[in-house]
Amino acid sequence: MSNEINKYTQDHQFAPSSQDDEIDLRELFSVIWQGKWLIVAVTAFFAIGSVIFALSQPNTYKSQALLAPASEEQGGGLSALAGQFGGLASMAGINLGAGGGVDKTQMAIEVIKSRQFASDFIQSHNILPDLMAADKWDRSTDTLAYDAAVYNAQSKAWVREVKAPFKPEPSMQEAYKEFSKVISVNSAKDTGMVTISVEHLSPSVAKQWVDWLIQDINKVMKDRDVAEAIKSSEFLNKQIALTNVADIRSILYKLIEEQAKTIMFAEVRDEYVFKTIDPALAPEEKAGPKRALICVLGTMLGGMLAVMIVLIRHFIKKED
């Protein structure tokens, strides 16, 4: 008798729980259905707003160039000397290096991404207005229009209103942040090819910047190597005057010869670090914005927000 009572008690103890779950689920759908017009209204509002926002965004164009790392023929001589005379030279206090060092291609990529290079690039080519104040691009005249609240094109004066420590004319720190958003430098691990791309309102500006980037990075790396070779040659000539050991002098003369080769190699080749495989073009098709995606995400966001509002409002009323 007691077993039957316990079984009856257990059955009635768990039955309301499953029934409550079923009622809650039905209640949930019922609440959503009752608030369907609010959900439709909020979703439609977000959908229309996302369409207006997507259409108000100007087109952007991406220009890119494919580059191949230039061969480093000038490094072979120093590597051979390091292996042949490294021990003897170290006795004289001369370091020929291990022959490896930092990959010049990777160094050039990091230089392009650096603040110093970006600042020099912006200032030397006077692209600060195109970078920070461009508002629209006129296809018929291939000209840029600037935001009047930021930059006065007639007087070439910055008129934006900002709080300290910022000034009407953007600083190089501000410009670097914006510059980092529009340029991209990627290296393929399997082939070693490097892609430099620029995205801008104007396709012609995007192409011009890519061309300038390639020219400038080749020149910067060339000037660095030439300056280092000249400095090394001066040091080696001083060392020759200080030693009478024939073997050491022979090493020093060969090192000077290698530095002369480095200078000659740099002077006769414009594409010092990167060789252009596929040059940049002014793109005809836009790269952004992705208006369809903006509209879809905006509509989905509105729908989810509307459902949350309906459910939250219902549970608040239920608790009251």
TrEMBL record:
Record flagged with keyword Nuclease: no
Every Tyrosine-protein kinase G-rich domain range: 275-314
Keyword Cell membrane: yes
GO molecular function, one term: protein tyrosine kinase activity
Primary subcellular site in the record, as a coarse category: membrane
Domain Polysaccharide chain length determinant N-terminal: 21-124
Transmembrane segments: 37-55, 292-316
One Pfam assignment: GNVR
Keywords: Cell membrane, Membrane, Transmembrane, Transmembrane helix
Domain of life: Bacteria
Topology versus the membrane: Multi-pass membrane protein
Subcellular location: Cell membrane
GO cellular component term of the entry, any: plasma membrane
Matching PANTHER family: FERRIC ENTEROBACTIN TRANSPORT PROTEIN FEPE (PTHR32309:SF13), TYROSINE-PROTEIN KINASE (PTHR32309)
Name listed for the protein in its UniProt record: Wzz/FepE/Etk N-terminal domain-containing protein
